[in-house]
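## retry 2 of 3
previous attempt timed out at serialization; input unchanged, resubmitting
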Amino acid sequence: MSDAKIPISLITTFYNEEDLLSRCLDSVANQTFKNFEFILIDDGSTDKSLKIAEKFLPKFKHVKLISTENSGHAEARNVGLNNVTGTYVTFLDADDTLVEHMMLEFYNKIQEQNTDLIISDFKSVDDVGANELTTKWNAAFLKIKYTEELAHLMYTEKIQETIWAKLFKTEIAKQISFNKGLWFDDRPFLIEFLFLSKTVDFIHKKLVVNYANRASITRRILEKKRIEDVYYLFNVELDIVERCNQNSFYKKSVFKNTLDFFIITYLIQIIDYDKIGNLKEVQGSFQRVFGKFKKDIKKESITFNFKKTVQIYLLSLPKYIGWSNVNLLFRLFKKKSIQHIKKLKDVD
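## retry succeeded, writing output
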């Protein structure tokens, strides 16, 4: 690939990130490979973030800084995609960093072969970078050559569904939009890209450092937005599967994955029970939204194994025997899962 065309574009969106943005931009400025396009989208910040970004502009060979009215990171990412000129595009959250040879590693890989998607391993650490956390890097990746195989793995072994630490062919990525207002907007973008593309390759190196932000979705106190987004994501994902003419395995997998999301959300309700200010409203939202999901299961004639069927039954019980009694049942049967979520949320 000739340097006449910029090989890689990097998109970073930010909103009020004055405390962490310099750390992120430093890591981009210190890349050993310089011939990439850096697109910064200021999503209407009201703090000093924009001024910080402006000070860094001279450090980059190809850079665009675009300011928009605050509309959420999904819309900001769409603005970024619309302005990409590189052959490939990757993303970096404003609170994360790149390893200094990340761009070089990705560039060398696309010189070797013209693949649609490249995925690297990453390092996940706590807020201050003191403790390294477990990631979902899978040894099976190194045997995979086609995105169809990876899509299947996504629903069977739960791969990391973020858009960072991944390099997307731009001509395919531009066919996809991020869903406005959806907290979990990485997942549908990645799924649709897997269905639209053909080939994938992997770099078995940790090239991105992800910091477990205390404001992340997983670590927030449970609120209605998360519950509603589980169902929103379900409909978005089901639409993608149907539009891309995928087989019945994927359709059923979307239902199974959504049930898992509901289970996790219910367990977060148990963990956050004493911290949720509007507990009855949140619990009522869960019952209402899960009721819609149950109707969809019946409408589509989706069948589950015994374990999943029992889980659906248990999630329906609070209406009849009360939340406290069902919470007790989940504490008994989902003890390990609760401990795992507590660890992710960094609570005792």
